[in-house]
Amino acid sequence: MLINHEREKLIQAVKFFAQNTRNLGKTKLYKLLYFLDFTHFRDTGRPVTGMEYFAWPMGPVPVDLHQELQAPSPDWDHNCRFKLVPVRGKEMLTVSALSDFDGTHFSKRELRILTELAREFHDTTAGQMVERTHLENLPWHQVYEIEKRKQKLIPYSMSLRKQDVENMIASINDREEIIAVLGK
Predict the structure, then answer these.
(1) Domain annotation covers residue 177
(2) How many CB atoms lie within 10 A of CB 139?
(3) Structural domain tally of the chain?
(4) Planar angle of CA 76, 44, 130, nearest 5 degrees
């Protein structure tokens, strides 16, 4: 299997959250990765892992990862363990790290976001994470509740606030004016 930079970041991010939060199951993991990618996109215009998230009833879900966790790829070996454990009459997929986190794949900004998310959601339950992603004006709520596009892609562009978009447009216009003046 060919491993790309985004794939390595995904594996390391999962490992980081497994080592730095409590009770990490797949629902909590999906929400942490969503917040990581959408926060970084809002700040830089690029996600960290490159995954796409879809508006499912319990919140944003990275469908490719969700499907992969049914039979994890070999590159998870020695990195993370995904184990089904009984919890209140149901089975919960838990995530644990098998080796130390390697931060060399991340920028300072990405590491800061990882750390802030782990700190903020350290003791948060999966149910509380679902509630956080369902807040009004967040991308999941817009796609699932307002637009009624259930199970559909949540565009990264929705992480941008109207003011952010206006500032970016103004910045582009300013650059074009500067280039026009310098070019004369």
Answers:
(1) no
(2) 20
(3) 1
(4) 55
Q: Report which of residues 174 and 124 the model is more confident about.
A: 124
Inside any domain, residue 168 = no
The residue ranking higher by pLDDT, 75 or 184, is: 75
CB 22 within 8 A of CB 123: yes
d(C-alpha 107, C-alpha 117), whole Å: 15
pTM over 0.85: yes
Structural contact between residues 36 and 28, judged by C-beta atoms closer than 8 angstroms = no
DSSP bridge pairs for 54: 61, 153
Residue by residue, DSSP assigns 158-180 as GGS-HHHHHHHHHHHHHHHHHHH
Q: In which domain, by residue range, is 60 found?
A: 5-158
Summarize pLDDT for 125-135 with one digit per residue, the tens.
999 999 999 99
Three-state SS at 19: helix
The verdict on residue 93 lying in a domain is: yes
Residue 176 forms part of a structural domain:
no
Q: CA 163, 169, 170, 175: dihedral to nearest 10 degrees? A: 150
CA distance 29 to 42: 20
